[in-house]
Design a protein that fits this description.
By secondary structure, the chain is an alpha+beta fold. It contains three helices and two strands. The chain has one domain. A two-stranded parallel sheet has the order 1-2.
Amino acid sequence: MTPEFHREIGIPRVAAIEYPYGRAVGAVEDVKGQRQVLLKALAFFETADTPGAVCHLPFLWPEEPKHTKWQPPEISPIIKLHLAEIKALGAKAKRT
């Protein structure tokens, strides 16, 4: 998502996409679109033979970022597992 940064730190090849942060492969629940992005990125990595190569994937985000659905309908398993700890840390931070 930031090919210039990746080039600076030495990432060997970059499949760049103009999607909002947190949605690098596509919108929540858009399985078909996510699959297309992944297949296109993998095809590039399979054929990229030049160090530092950058491929700008041919996908556009379908809506303005301010209208993007950022949260999935269900909490992630790792967050669910640690939710009590997260809430306790949040409460502790408010007290200090």
